[in-house]
Amino acid sequence: MRTTGFNACACERSSDRRAGERVRAGINEADSRKRTNGAYYPPKPAASAMFRRRGANSMAKNKFNQSWLHDHINDPYVKLAQREGYRARAAYKLKEIDEQDKLIKPGQVIVDLGAAPGSWSQYVRNKLAASPRAKDGRIDGAIVAIDILPMEPVADVAFIQGDFREEAVFQQLEAIVLDATGGGKVDLVLSDMAPNLSGVASADAARMEHIAELAVEFAQAHLKPEGALLIKCFHGSGYSQIVEMFKRHFRVVAPRKPKASRDKSSETFLLGRQLKHPG
Q1: Is 211 helix (H, G, I), strand (E, B) or coil?
Q2: For a Cys-Cys bond, which of 92, 107, 162, 221 suits 279, CB 3.0-4.6 Å?
Q3: Which among 187, 210, 190 is positioned nearest to 97, based on CA atoms?
Q4: Where do the domains of the chain lie?
Q5: 39: which strand partners?
Q6: Which residues pair with 216 in a beta bridge?
Q7: So which residues are the catalytic ones?
Q8: Which residues sit in the known binding site for S-adenosyl-L-methionine?
Q9: pTM for the full model?
Q10: Which residues of the chain have pLDDT under 70?
């Protein structure tokens, strides 16, 4: 027996008592006192505890999903979109902003960045098709849409699937824009693009700012001096930097929070008009 400096009997009784306590607690004594070269290592968490934590996380996730699904099914804009044939409730966000700011007009050339699933393109198409100058089922104007994701065709909308940061895709987009404008500039750039959020505020803010920069760069190169850019962004870290960037490029900058954007969402939209330094 290793010398401990304690009374052996007292040590044994204490050890027995602790062992009994561990047994009653459901902990195996041998596992709880593992030693390697005389060093003590605490026991690993019991598998049952790990499963309980995983189960709790899974239950919380399921509860969130069920809550979201309940809100989605009962959302009046979801029901309205289904009745009116829009692919997503997002169409009503654009509709409200358009009605307030008179963005979409007959004869315009409009670019829809991050277009999938296509509800913004649908709304723009319906608006241009309602023009008195639209004939034979055609629209009075032109719409160019792009997204990295696939999108079901929308009548009268030229769609490109790809990442417009890639040179080949960007050249394809430019070619369609030049053809639609007769070598000129576009009237309106819409961007519903958003990054995949990680939950890390600083990383998400950087991604959102980068996407906003891409939209502004595109507008700077292809927008008419009196044209407009509308983007989606989020309140929180990085929002003020996006606003300042807009103010450097546009004479008129206005935030928009349409009713169709859920109250508890940090989602907002930023509208820039009249380029200060057209490309």
Answers
A1: helix
A2: 221
A3: 190
A4: 8-73, 87-275
A5: 36
A6: none
A7: 232
A8: 118, 120, 147, 163, 192
A9: 0.75
A10: 1-72
